[in-house]
């Protein structure tokens, strides 16, 4: 129920309606919470979430009895062939994703800069060429990620080729059936 002031009319702010009559919900909720009240009477309360993680383990977190690595791909432990394969596969997947994102960012940056106002004495073609020159650096970063993904695959292929004898189980000699006799 809305509170009724002493004059008998319902309080619109208590109903969650703005006093300007446009029906905006919760217009004064931000002001009541200490938020910013704009010139039009509306309020703005920015959503703020604060998370503080403090780790006191010499720079590395311990989770589940294992040390959590500070590396994006995890600690590079190459104890067996599965470790090498998994590391190379994770590197490849990460670099492919980064290459795609960087290529898209380069195209978006080029389009955005190409639409900017030209400098005095400059035509539209020169503006687009300047935009392409700037975005080219992101494109090069994308090409570097593509090369890193390709080299991750090549690393595992070279590992298989060079250490194939260690990866295959070696044939065991059968036990001798002739026991030693004097």
Describe the structure concisely.
With 182 residues, the chain is mainly alpha-helical. Helices cover 45% and strands 4% of the residues.
Shape: elongated
- What's the multimeric state? single chain
Quick one: biggest sheet? 2 strands, antiparallel
Give the overall pLDDT as a whole number: 74
Sheet/helix structural class? mainly alpha
Strand content: under 5%
Return residue spans where pLDDT drops below 50 for at least 5 consecutive residues. Answer: 12-41, 57-62
Please state the CA-atom Rg, rounded to the nearest Å. 33 Å
What's the SSE pattern? Answer: HEEEEHHH
- Record field, number of beta strands: 4
Number of helices: 4
Read across the widest sheet, the strand sequence of neighbours is 1-2
N-end to C-end Cα span = 110 Å
Q: Work out the helicity level.
A: 40-55%
What are the SSEs and their pairings?
Layout: H1 29-32, E1 36-37, E2 43-44, E3 62-63, E4 66-67, H2 81-114, H3 124-162, H4 164-167
Antiparallel strand pairs: 1-2, 3-4
Features:
182 residues, mainly alpha, two-stranded antiparallel ribbon, 4 strands, elongated
Describe the model.
- This protein is mainly alpha-helical and 182 residues long.
- 45% of the residues lie in helices and 4% in strands.
- The chain has four helices and four strands.
- It has helices spanning 29-32, 81-114, 124-162, 164-167; strands at 36-37, 43-44, 62-63, 66-67.
- It has a two-stranded antiparallel sheet. The chain has a two-stranded antiparallel ribbon with strand order 3-4.
- The longest helix has 39 residues, at 124-162.
């Amino acid at each position: 129920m809305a509170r009724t002031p002493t004059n008998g009319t319902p309080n619109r702010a208590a109903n969650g309606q703005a006093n300007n009559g446009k029906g905006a919900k919760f217009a004064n909720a931000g002001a009541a919470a200490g938020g910013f009240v704009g010139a039009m009477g509306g309020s703005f309360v920015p959503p703020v979430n604060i998370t503080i993680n403090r780790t006191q383990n010499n720079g590395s977190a311990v989770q589940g009895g294992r040390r959590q690595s500070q590396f994006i791909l995890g600690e590079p432990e190459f104890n067996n062939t599965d470790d090498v394969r998994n590391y190379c596969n994770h590197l490849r997947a990460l670099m492919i994703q980064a290459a795609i994102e960087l290529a898209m960012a380069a195209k978006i940056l080029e389009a955005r800069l190409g639409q900017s106002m030209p400098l005095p004495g400059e035509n539209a073609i020169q503006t687009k060429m300047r935009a392409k020159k700037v975005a080219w650096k992101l494109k090069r970063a994308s090409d570097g990620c593509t090369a890193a993904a390709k080299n991750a695959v090549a690393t595992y292929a070279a590992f298989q080729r060079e250490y194939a004898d260690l990866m295959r189980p070696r044939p065991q000699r059968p036990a001798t059936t002739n026991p030693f006799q004097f």
